[in-house]
Specification:
The structure holds two protein chains of two kinds. Chain A is built from twelve helices and 16 strands. By secondary structure, chain A is of the alpha/beta class. Chain A folds into two domains: about 220 residues, Rossmann fold, CATH 3.40.50.2300; about 150 residues, 3-Layer(aba) Sandwich (Rossmann fold), CATH 3.40.50.2300. Chain A has a five-stranded parallel beta sheet with strand order 2-1-3-4-5, sandwiched between helices. Chain B is mostly helical. Chain B has a domain of about 190 residues. Chain B is built from eleven helices and two strands, in the order H-H-H-H-E-E-H-H-H-H-H-H-H. The chains are: A alpha/beta, B mainly alpha.
Chain lengths: ~425, ~290
């Protein structure tokens, strides 16, 4: 170490980490690994969520390799730090494809970076899974052919609540209130479409300016129109404001479901008794009863994933982690099918599987618009979990109430509860 | 028909209740302009800081949220006095652009400071959200309380301005600072007092924000535009005008939200500013702090 300064040592470590590989002990030596590339935000503004996402990918690779790999071949993750920068991300994805010659790709973290790399991926023709991306931009009307969306786009955030209301709540009328910005508008589009499909009468469908601070007139309008189900919102302030407004106008609802804000633990502490019975959305929760493919003949449940993740990283997984792991499960299943069909992890076979498969991972349901359609690759089955604050032993707890098969509690209809 | 009438009354009443909060904020803005000819762009931030003072007073001491007025109003009064003494006083009597730029700077500084200190996380206080039923109309106890408290504070302000020596001095300075000074009134201290009172009124309005709405560092931006519209409609510097216009715009906003939609209702505020300035620049009630005598 005499000639190696601290800075030099760090640089060397960085270089080593830069081409870091994951090879499990249970895999036959000498088999060429299946290489999966990822440009990931090790630093910069996405460091935290991207860190969780990458831990999910890592744990998945370790599990697969420990179980003997795919078709006897280990999986190898090759990654570089994109510093949360879209331009850097594009450069690194090109490098992964041309220099490292990866077989498949996981997208970078989030909408911004994924939207940036999408054209490169489509141009190069490498099957890719966009693990955690809410934007529809890379798919909507793009006729994409290589990348699939794994997580939910905005229209699927609350759509499950409409199914729940129609199937179990005997709800006939709905009011949709939403902020006039892209994300809440996407959520409202999903609500509207699902409500029409379910035959609910939309008695009020209104957007409001993001500067709105008083939701009372809007909520009172929904009440005056006789809506039994109030849905929409935007972010935390809207969730709080709409809930308070509904209480203030003495609104008796069968169900109220608001996007994003309700699921925040702060909602229960700030709203107290008003939180009980309020429904919201979650991408994934530790308690959901999901499961999925690991290697041929072996499945893993969400519960096992949570336990294994906590042991491996010394902290509990977040939904980003589950998305990372789930995306791995989907890829593993695609590769396995391809090997069974063609004897090797053929890119075309993997791609065709990703665009046609309908199934489940620990992250939840999966299924995209098929190849050849304008929205090909856009996620259409990953409805978010509908959660509801319910009182258990005197404490408000967040329960999953939809989809029914994965629910942790029976849904409560009728708000306010007190 | 009865139903339609009831809906109209309901929405007008809701607007009236919320309008009291607009009035309270506009009173402070108008008072400051009346006395100092300073357009206080930072008034929204005073409201926001008042909200945080009240919020933390409630969270730490478990005082009744209404009682936190006793902390937030003096705190904002002190902040106003200090800002006036050290910053705003320097631009009094200068071209209006100077005071606009200065208060704009104060606004941005306070907003960023709040971001750093309190985080962008929205906060709210669960208090009196249960509704009362009046002739089939449900109104939350909180909004009734806010309405009553706003009226009370406005009445106190009027009593102060009309019944005390300092109040009369404020009105004198608003009417004619030179003559007031010639009569022995310490106009500098009067300006400090007026700015402090204006900030205190914004602080009082801010106290109600986490109760009725949600408190976050940018909340002042949402209210300042409304307050400007109220002041312009009421006539710059007219306290009676500010109070009445606040209630009026609250009612109009609520009714438009019901009969058209929230987007159009929001536009009402912009349209009011433009319309009044074009058609009746002195506002509905004229300008000046004294004409209501």
């Amino acid at each position: 170490m005499t000639s190696l300064s601290r800075r030099g040592f760090l640089k060397l470590s960085g270089a080593l980490v830069g081409s870091w590989t994951l090879l499990g002990v249970g895999v036959g030596r000498g088999q060429e690994p299946i290489k999966i590339g990822i440009s990931i935000s090790v630093s910069g503004r996405f460091e935290r969520p991207a860190g969780y996402l990458f831990e999910g990918h890592k744990l998945w690779a370790e599990h697969v390799n420990a179980a003997g790999g795919l078709g006897g071949r280990p999986v190898e993750l090759i990654f570089y730090d994109d510093k949360s920068d879209p331009a850097e991300s594009v450069k690194l994805v090109r490098k992964l494809i041309t220099d490292d010659r990866v077989d498949f790709l996981f997208s970078p973290y989030g909408s911004e970076l994924t939207a940036a790399v999408a054209p490169t991926i489509e141009e190069a023709g490498v099957p890719a899974i966009a693990s955690i991306v809410a934007t529809m931009k890379p798919w909507k009307g793009q006729n994409a052919q290589w990348m699939v969306q794994f997580s939910s786009p905005a229209p699927l955030y609350l759509a499950g609540a409409v199914d729940l209301a129609a199937e179990e709540g005997d709800v006939r009328t709905i009011a949709i209130l939403y902020e006039d910005t892209p994300f809440p508008t996407g959520v409202a589009n999903g609500l509207r479409e699902r409500a029409q499909a379910r035959g609910l009468e939309i008695v009020l469908d209104e957007k409001y300016d993001k500067a709105v601070t008083d939701w009372t007139p809007l909520v009172a309008k929904a009440k005056a129109r006789g809506a039994e189900f109030l849905a929409g919102g935007a972010y935390f302030p809207a969730a709080v404001g709409i809930t308070k407004a509904a209480a203030a106008v003495g609104y008796q609802l069968k169900l109220m479901a608001l996007v994003v804000g309700v699921a925040d633990p702060k909602f229960a502490t700030e709203m107290g008794p008003l939180a009980e019975g309020m429904a919201g959305n979650e991408l994934w929760l530790k308690v959901v009863r999901t499961k999925g493919f690991l290697v041929p003949g072996q499945e893993i449940t969400n519960e096992e994933f949570v336990r294994s993740y906590t042991e491996r990283f010394g902290r509990e997984p977040e939904y980003w982690s589950a998305a990372g792991y789930g995306a791995g499960q989907l890829l593993a299943q695609a590769i396995t099918q391809a090997i069974e069909a063609t004897g090797e992890p053929d890119r075309m076979a993997v791609r065709d599987f990703l665009f046609t498969f309908e199934g489940e991972t620990i992250y939840g349901p999966y299924g995209v618009h098929p190849l050849g359609t304008p929205d090909a690759g856009l996620q259409r089955r990953k409805d978010q979990f509908i959660i509801q604050w319910q009182r258990r032993d005197g404490e408000l707890t967040k329960e999953v109430i939809w989809p029914a098969a994965m629910a942790t509690a029976e849904p409560l209809f009728g708000w306010p509860r007190a | 028909m009865m139903d339609e009438l009831q809906v109209f009354v309901e929405f007008a009443l809701r607007g009236l209740l919320i309008g009291a909060l607009y009035s309270l904020m506009a009173l402070g803005l108008s008072l400051i302009f009346g006395v100092m000819r300073v357009i206080n762009v930072a008034h929204g931030e005073f409201l926001m800081i008042g909200g945080y003072v009240a919020y933390f007073a409630w969270a730490w001491t478990q005082l009744s949220p209404l009682a936190t007025l006793l902390i937030s109003v003096p705190a904002l009064f002190a902040l106003g006095v200090a800002l006036e003494r050290f910053l705003v006083e320097r631009v009094v009597g200068k071209p209006e652009l100077a005071s606009l730029m200065l208060t704009f700077g104060i606004s941005i500084t306070l907003w960023n400071l709040a971001h750093a200190l309190f985080s962008p996380d929205p906060r709210s206080v669960p208090y009196l959200y249960e509704p009362l039923e009046l002739l089939g109309i449900y109104i939350s106890k909180a909004s009734l309380m806010i309405f009553a408290a706003s009226l009370g504070l406005a009445a106190l302000l009027v009593l102060f301005l009309k019944g005390t020596r300092w109040g009369k001095a404020i009105r004198a300075v608003a009417q004619n600072p030179e003559v007031a000074q010639a009569c022995g009134i310490d106009t500098r201290r009067v300006r400090m007092l007026a700015f402090g009172l204006g900030a205190g009124l914004a602080g009082a309005a801010g106290t109600f924000v986490p109760i009725q709405f949600s408190l976050f560092p940018g909340v002042g931006h949402e209210f300042i535009l409304k307050a400007f519209a109220v002041v312009v409609l009421g006539g710059l510097g007219s306290l009676g005008g500010a109070f009445t216009s606040g209630l009026l715009l609250g009612v109009v906003e609520s009714l438009i939200t019901f009969y058209a939609n929230a987007h159009v209702a929001y536009l009402t505020f912009y349209a009011t500013i433009v319309g009044v300035l074009l058609l009746r620049p002195a506002g509905l009630f004229g300008t000046g702090l004294v004409e209501e005598d």
